[in-house]
Design a protein that fits this description.
The protein has 121 residues and is an all-alpha fold. The protein has helices at 8-46, 56-66, 74-83, 88-116. It is elongated.
């Protein structure tokens, strides 16, 4: 299907959908390992026996503030789209169909106006 696609925009959306699914599969494959290691590191950092108990909350706050937020990373957006089942290709085709429908409706309206109007008025 990708090779048969001649339109560059459609081709790019298909590629992004495929890449998103590949990245999502890779991410899911390593995510549990990352979470296990991260949990262990955070537990050791927060519950360090050498640190006074009153500093645990401060350390926890620092860890929470350190976690980056937002999805400005384009690869993260592609992975998020894939995980939510968003297909850029289907969105592109839907938008094209919508625009074509609007264009056809506008053309029919203009044609009707021309047919109903007299050139002599």
């Amino acid at each position: 299907m990708l090779i048969a696609t001649k339109d560059e925009h459609e081709r790019r959306t298909l590629i992004e959908d495929i890449v998103g699914k590949i990245l999502l599969a890779c991410w899911r494959g390593v995510a549990s390992e990352i979470m296990q290691v991260l949990t262990e590191v955070v537990d050791r950092y927060i519950n360090d026996g050498a640190v006074e108990r009153r500093l645990w909350a401060t350390r926890a706050t620092v860890m929470i503030d350190y976690i980056p937020g937002g999805h400005s990373n384009p690869l993260q957006r592609i992975i998020d789209d894939a995980s939510h089942g968003v297909s850029k290709h289907h969105l592109l085709l839907s938008k094209r169909a919508e625009l074509a429908s609007q264009s056809n409706e506008a053309g029919l309206t203009l044609k009707r106006k021309r047919e109903n109007s007299s050139p002599w008025t």
